[in-house]
Amino acid sequence: MRNKIVYGYGIENGTICIQSGQKEVIRKIFNDYISGNSIRQIMQALNAGGILSPNGRAWSHKAVGKLLKDSRYIGDSLYPVMIPEEIFAQAQEKRQETNKALGRTPKTERDKLPYDGMVFCGRCGRRFYRLHHRGKTYWECGMHHQGKRAKERACSNSRHFVDTEIEKAFIRLQNRMFDGAVEICQPISRNTKRLETLKAKYDEMLENSGSYEERSLADIIFWIAAEEYAQSKGAEDKMIQRAIDENGRTMDFQVDVFLKIVRKITVMEEGLCFELINGQKISNV
């Protein structure tokens, strides 16, 4: 599936620009939503007005909801600002409040623990699995467990632990970050080779624009934006800091904070290492 330019934007001379007609639609959607209208009411009003959705058909509840949570409307390195950041933030707060009031829980949260699939062995790199044995539930390296059962050479990382160890470790980490004992700062070293390659391709396409379709330019712009966002110094640091500041010190494991800031957990024999969304690794938590 090709990557499409976000609804409300277009391409002129190789640059993403705002489409005035769609801009008014988007701003009205956000303003109506934070003013108290439901997603369903907004959807019905759009369809009653004969306004087509991004796919050229009638608006659906899902289409309006997807638009309301697209952060590119507040601007990035390639997308110009469409919605003020404070309006976007208000919309996200209302979505969270509505979901909480209606008792809506994402399927992934209902069916598994928030860190399921995120825990890996620091020795062999394989995933840690949550095992059930003789009435006990614990986490163990899959390669270590498999090797024991097959009576073959197993991973030497024999460490195992229960759910609460991960949760208590994250509580300690969250409190240390809030107290300033852990500095939030992404690693200085970032691999820029992919970004340089994409930009070189973009320049070549602009010089020979007659040989490329507009959608090809859209694809390359999309990937440049994604790569620049991943490498943008401080962007993810601010997201982490904001999540920590908003929730403060805690005695409880806060799932929403964990999911916002943690990318991976590596199990070392001496302790857990949390990798944050900015690429920062914090060991021995």
Tell me what you see in this structure.
This protein is 47% helix and 14% strand. It has helices spanning 20-34, 39-48, 61-68, 85-101, 107-111, 142-150, 163-179, 193-207, 214-231, 235-247, 255-261, and strands at 9-12, 15-18, 119-121, 128-133, 136-141, 160-161, 262-268, 271-276, 281-282. It has a four-stranded mixed β-sheet. Strand 7 (262-268) and strand 8 form a beta hairpin. The longest helix is centred in the last third of the chain and has 18 residues, at 214-231.
Question: Which terms summarize this structure?
Answer:
alpha+beta; globular; 11 helices; 285 residues; 9 strands
User: Looking at the structure, what is the overall shape?
Assistant: globular
Alpha-beta classification: alpha+beta
Proportion of helical residues: 40-55%
In the sheet with the most strands, the strands line up as: 3-7-8-9
Radius of gyration, CA atoms, in whole angstroms: 23 Å
Q: What is the total tally of β strands?
A: 9
Q: Main β-sheet, in a few words?
A: 4 strands, mixed
SSE order: EEHHHHHEEEHEHHHHHEEE
Which parts are unreliable, with pLDDT below 50 for 5 consecutive residues or more?
none
What fraction of the residues are assigned to beta strands by DSSP? Answer: 5-15%
Average pLDDT metric: 83
Spatial gap, N to C terminus: 41 Å
Number of helices: 11
